[in-house]
Each structure stands twice: as structure tokens, then as C-alpha cells.
Amino acid sequence: MLAGTITIVGVGLIGGSIGLAAKQRRIAQHVIGVDTNQARLEKARQLGAIDPAGYETSTATSLDDVVIVCTPVDQIAGQVLVMAKAAAKGTLITDSGSTKAIIVHEVENQLLEGVAFVGSHPLAGSERQGPDCAVPNLLDGKVVVVTPTKKSTPIALTRTVALWESLGANVRLMSPEDHDRAIAFTSHVPHLLASALAGSLDDSLRDLTASGFRDMTRIASGDPSLWTAIFTQNRQAVLSGLDKLDDRLKEIAESVRNADWPKLTSLLAQAKKVRDALGS
Amino acid sequence: MLAGTITIVGVGLIGGSIGLAAKQRRIAQHVIGVDTNQARLEKARQLGAIDPAGYETSTATSLDDVVIVCTPVDQIAGQVLVMAKAAAKGTLITDSGSTKAIIVHEVENQLLEGVAFVGSHPLAGSERQGPDCAVPNLLDGKVVVVTPTKKSTPIALTRTVALWESLGANVRLMSPEDHDRAIAFTSHVPHLLASALAGSLDDSLRDLTASGFRDMTRIASGDPSLWTAIFTQNRQAVLSGLDKLDDRLKEIAESVRNADWPKLTSLLAQAKKVRDALGS
Q1: Would you write out chain A's pLDDT as a tens digit for each of its 280 residues?
Q2: CB contact, 8 Å: B260 with chain A?
Q3: Is B149 in contact with B176 (CB distance < 8 Å)?
Q4: Could you say which of A194, B248, B275, B279 has the lowest number of CB atoms within 10 Å?
Q5: Residue A114 pairs with which residues in a beta bridge?
Q6: What's residue A58's pLDDT?
Q7: Distance CA B32, CA B57 (A)
Q8: Residue A278 contacts residue B211 (beta carbons within 8 Å)
Q9: Nearest residue on chain A to B187, judged by CA atoms?
Q10: Tell me: the pLDDT tens digits for A226-239?
Q11: How far apart are CA B259 and CA A163, in angstroms?
């Protein structure tokens, strides 16, 4: 048992999956859901991702509580601060946002009395949304980046790491800034690329797309507002990542334009090596 | 029964899958494999994708034969012409190449006596290779583009369409040139994009790639030589496709650079609409 109560704010794909895993692995005495969308909250209850309504208030616990804020990135800092005010002393708060620097610093610039906050980002997102898509093994073997700062206490950091590990994930520690730069290239830029590809497909060509095109554009089905919020919070790193990608794309295009086939083969071979190393 | 003998030249993923489907659906009396790689040929035999060695020569048939050339695109035209010389009168030859104009015109510029050729392209490729990856349902419900020209006889075209339909595919007719322009955007440009993304990933970021990055770069694991051959045969259309994509990517990058978030959301929303329409 890791926590008295785990409160999940935002019971969508990630929040719902955390709830299912927490219940299945019995890492808390109670799993409470909070969501502005009552239908989603009810759905999460039906699926067993959170405790039945009313149940959560019935028992005092001796273990410290945990709050995980799994809402769109532009709402996370505000919700962390609201939860901090309502939380019992000793509560650990973390989140699941795809950006970290702005969220972490906004939270740390406000005084949290008696509670601790450490930022987190489980690399387990999807173009799908909502508790219906939640699965208890979403985090199994996945990487969760935890982003401590100078202000993080060792105890809070240890608890944050233990939380994600108890949910089945592998934790990697990075500063919020390093996280944002890295994820800009591994997630945010790919999203823009997928969107550019899907968005420039002529209607007449839809029937001529096969698994390659579908795989490459799948994430373009993600929610535009959620993603725009991410880009507002990671603008510079995304622009740098786009530049980097553009350099490589230009090099490839030049080799095709110049019919420099040995050069093209070598660029393709280098990329294949990188991709093969990632596994399926 | 559609053919006396189906001869598959090149028993890799596509050729092997065609063999398995042809046997399972009993569309020919014999399925013969031809491959310069003896180990691959033996593997295809073991998997039941082609008939046992020696078996193929034992029976004369009353049905006309079919030859399907499933080799790298730069070898197809030459192999079609070789097979044409050896083929019985009335044989239909087709192929599975990812480019069509160069192959079709190279073949049609040579006189094929007593045999017919119509180009085909099953949209069922993969980054995987070899008969080990072959499956009998690879073509089920997939699109096969068949590319007749003025020189194609109605009978040859009808037989080509019937062949792919009997293997479970849906046929779409296009000119070789229209095919190449379309596939440049739905397959060849995405390949370069996947390759650019994988190729510009820093080693230190490998652990931070999740399913989105993996989906987007999967096809970058394709064989560099096979793909270079494709690009040599579809250079202009690929360059046009890259330009088109680049325009869209620039528009997206500009909206991020200018922090024009409503514009970015609208670009993402338009792309999501296209992608959602493609299905999973």
C-alpha cells in the first residue's frame, strides 16, 4: 500500500488507466476521481477506475495521500494549486502533462503549504481519449519522466518515483527543461509532421493510403485543442525541433533532386539503423 | 479455377503471400515459385506458398497461365521480358511494383509475342521482408491498383482484375502516370518523412520515444536499396509531393513561430478530419 487515497483529477485515457492500475495493484486504500465532466466521471466509476460515489469520504487513513492531475496541460498548474489548498498535510501532488517547465515553475512559484509537488509525464498517450479507452496495463513497461527541481524534497521525489513504479512504469529523471526539449523532438514535432501529412492529402487519394500512411498519420487524430495547448507551452523547443527535422528533410530532398542515389541510400540506411534499434 | 499455373517471380513478403492466398483459395492448378535466392525459394516451399520442387513440370493444363513478378522495381521490367519469352501462348503477366510508368512503358516498348502484360500494385507492402512474413490474408480487402494503357487488351485487363479479386483484393484502375503521382504522396513521400524523422533522432532520446514516434517511423525500417530503386523511378512526382508537404509544414511552423494559436488549432483540426475519415 503506497497511499491512503489517490485522487485522480481528469479521468480520461491516462487518468482512467491510472485508476484501473491503482485498483488492480491495490496501491491505495481509495481511488477518487475528480472531473468537470460528470458523464466521464460516471463512466470511470462504471469501469471501476475510481471508487463508487460517496465511498471516498467514509474512511480516515494513516497513509499520506497522492493527487495526480491528468487534465489538459493548460489547466494543470491551476488545478494543482486548487488541490493543494484542499489537500491534507503530507499530500504529494504530481501530474501527467506532456510539457513540464511552464507547469512546474508556475506551481513552484506559488507557496504550497504542507504539500509537495513534483512534475511527471507518462509516455503513454494516444490519439484516443476518454475513460472508455482506459486499460489497467497502459503504463506497463512504459517510461514516465519525472522532473524534479532544486525545490523538490528527496522525500517527495522518492514518493513520486515509487508511485509510477508501483503502477508498472519505468521512471527516468530529467529537469523540466531537458524534458521539454527531448519531448519536443520525440512527440511534439512528430505530431506536427503527422498533421502536415494528413492535412495535405487530397480527398481523391484517400482510398490509396495503406498501412504506412495510416501509421504515420495516426496521431493527427489527437484533439486539436489539447495539442495547441501543448505547443503554446513548448514553442521554442518545438521550433528548434522543426528546424532540425527540416535540415534532414532538405538533405533527403536534395539527394532526390540531384539523383544522387548513393547519398539517398546512405541516408535511408542510417535512418533504418536508428529505427531498427527502437524495436517494434 | 482462374489459371492453369501461377508463377510467382520473387517469393518475398508479397510474392509469398500471393502464393499462400492462391493455394488457400485454389485459384490455380499449380503455383510455381521462381527466385534467385534458393534459400528463400526453399522457405516458400516449406511454408506451402508454392508447390514442391519438380511438381510444377508434371502436368499440362488447359487454363491459361499467369505470371506475377514481385521483385524490386528496378528488376521487374527485365524479368517480365524474360518470362514473356519463356511463357506459353496466352499467358498473362503482371507485377506488384510500387512504381508503374517506367516499368509499364519499358515492357510495352518491347514486343511481347502471344502474351499480355498489365501492371499492378497491391497496396499491401510492409517494412518487413521475406517469405517468413507472408500471410494468406495479406491482400484481403486491400486495394490493388491496376494500370492499363491503350495497349492493354480488354481480355488481359479483365484477367488481371479477376486475378487480384480472386486473391481477396479490391481493384482500382488508374493510368501508370496517375498511379505514380498518387502513390508518391501516399507512400513514397511518407517514407522519406519517416526516414528524416528517424534519421535525425539523437541517440540520447531513444528511450524517450513512445508509440507515436514508433508508428511514425516504422516504415523507415524498409530496405534502403529497394526504396532507392523506387525513388529513381518516381523522382519528379516525389519531388512535387515533398514540395506540397513542405508548404503545409511551413504553414504549421509559421503559426507556431507567430504564436498564432487559433490558426494552428484550425490546421490541426483540418488534418484530424482527414485522418479520422481514413479509419484505423
Answers
A1: 789 999 999 999 999 999 999 999 999 999 999 999 999 999 999 999 999 876 555 455 568 999 999 999 999 999 999 999 999 999 999 999 999 999 999 999 997 889 999 999 999 988 888 899 999 999 999 999 999 999 999 999 999 999 999 999 999 999 999 999 999 999 999 999 999 999 999 999 999 999 999 999 999 999 999 999 999 999 999 999 999 999 999 999 999 999 999 999 999 999 999 999 998 8
A2: no
A3: yes
A4: B279
A5: none
A6: 46
A7: 9
A8: no
A9: A213
A10: 999 999 999 999 99
A11: 36
Chain A residues whose beta carbon lies within 8 Å of the beta carbon of residue B197: 189-190, 193, 245
Spatial distance between the Cα atoms of B280 and B274, rounded to a whole number of angstroms:
12
- Tell which A residues from 12 to 31 touch B, by Cβ distance under 8 Å: none
Task: Please report the DSSP string for A31-50 in residue order.
Answer: EEEE-S-HHHHHHHHHTTSS
How much is the pTM?
Answer: 0.93
Contacts by B252-255, CB closer than 8 A, 24 or more apart: B252/A192, B252/A195, B252/A196, B253/A192, B253/A239, B253/A242, B253/A246
The candidate with the shortest Cα–Cα distance to B93, out of B65, B72, B59, is B65
- Residue showing cell 479507452: A133
Query: Which residues from A are below 8 Å from B137, CB to CB?
Result: none
Does any CB of chain B come closer than 8 Å to the CB of residue A254?
A: no
Give dist(CA B36, CA B245) in Å, integer: 38
Nearest to A269 among B224, B239, B264 (CB): B224
Three-state secondary-structure class, residue B57: helix
Q: What is the pLDDT of residues A58-107, one digit of tens each?
A: 455 568 999 999 999 999 999 999 999 999 999 999 999 999 999 999 99
CB A29 within 8 A of CB A56: no
Q: How many residues comprise chain A? A: 280
Residue A175 Cα, gap to closest chain B Cα (Å): 14
Contact (CB, 8 A) for A220 and A195: yes
Measured torsion, CA atoms of residues B27, B31, B35, B37, in degrees rounded to the nearest 10: 110
Residue-averaged pLDDT of chain B: 94
Q: What is the 3-state secondary structure (H, E, C) of B152-179?
A: CCHHHHHHHHHHHHHCCCEEEECCHHHH
Helix (H) or strand (E) holding B7: strand B3-9
Q: Which amino acid is at B50?
A: I
Any A CB within 8 A of B141 CB: no
> Residue B230: its chain A contacts at CB < 8 A?
none
Interface of A with B in 153-182 (CB under 8 A): 172, 182
Residues of B in contact with A14 (CB under 8 A): none
